[in-house]
Amino acid sequence: MGVERWERGWAAVVHLGILFSWVGMVGTLVVLLWQRDHSAFVADHAKQALAYQLAVFCVLYLSSLALAGSLATGLVGLERFLGSASILGLMVVVTTAVAMWASVTALKGVRCRYPVIGRLLQRV
């Protein structure tokens, strides 16, 4: 039996949660807790999405703090700050693209794994 349409929809939505920062993470966690006993497909996608969202949030938050701290203390000039800010912007674009890829994959009814994060989750 294939994956139901509603399961594909919920699985796609949890991947797009990253577009809404911490609100998306909370929403993804709610869907995971709500669907873990009802749909293995949705629960699997929610686990993947939540792990990815947490990892991205931590990396971007720590990078932003380090960058702001370096600028505030004068360790980095304005040119390097702008270059680093551009890299952070590129990270946001790539993060969004990967989440959209996972969402489309979920809509097709296929289980997907995020690069690196997905493999780590399989071991846990």
Description:
The protein is mainly alpha-helical and 124 residues long. It has one domain (5-113). It has five helices and no strands. Helix 1 (5-16) packs parallel to helix 3 (40-73) and helix 3 packs antiparallel against helix 4. The longest helix has 34 residues, at 40-73. The chain is elongated, with a radius of gyration of 17 Å. It starts with a helix and ends with a helix. The mean pLDDT is 86.
Number of strands: 0
Strand residue content: under 5%
**In this structure, how is the largest beta sheet organized?**
none
What low-confidence regions span 5 or more consecutive residues with pLDDT below 50? none
**In which range does the helix fraction lie?**
over 70%
**What string, H for helix and E for strand, traces the elements in order?**
HHHHH
Backbone shape: elongated
Query: What is the straight-line distance between the termini?
Result: 27 Å
- Which class do the helix and strand fractions yield? mainly alpha
- Quote the average pLDDT: 86
| Number of helices, where a helix is a run of at least 4 consecutive DSSP H or I residues | 5
Q: C-alpha Rg, in Å? A: 17 Å
Provide the number of structural domains: 1
Short structural description:
The protein contains 5 helices and no strands.
